[in-house]
Amino acid sequence: MFQYAAASGGGNILSLVGPFVLMFVVFYFLLIRPQQKKTKARNGMLKSLSKGAKVVTIGGLHGTILEISDDIVVLRVNDVTKLTFDRGSISHSIVEKEDKE
C-alpha cells in the first residue's frame, strides 16, 4: 500500500504544476507579449521624433516640435506660446493625410 502511494507521488506533482504553467503561458500571450509590443512601438516613435512633427502630449495638448534634444522637447502650441516637455510625455505623433486632388 505504501509502495503504491510513493510511486504515484510524481504524477501528483505534475498535475499540480501543470495548471500553473498553462496559466503562465496564457498570461504571457494575452498580457505580457502585447504590452511589450506596445512599449517597443512607443520607444521607436519617441526616437523618430524630429523638428516640425505634430504631436499630442499625454495631457492632450496638441503642438508642433520646435526644438528637440535627448530628453527635452519644446512645443509650439500657437503663434506665441512655446512649452517645454520631457520627451517621454509625448503620447503620439499625428500623421496628416495628403489631399488626393
From TrEMBL:
The UniProt entry's GO CC annotations, sorted and at most eight, read: plasma membrane
- Note the topology in the membrane: Single-pass membrane protein
BP terms from Gene Ontology:
protein transport
The alphabetized UniProt keywords are: Cell membrane, Membrane, Protein transport, Translocation, Transmembrane, Transmembrane helix, Transport
| Source organism superkingdom | Bacteria
**Localization (cell):** Cell membrane
| UniProt protein name | Preprotein translocase subunit YajC
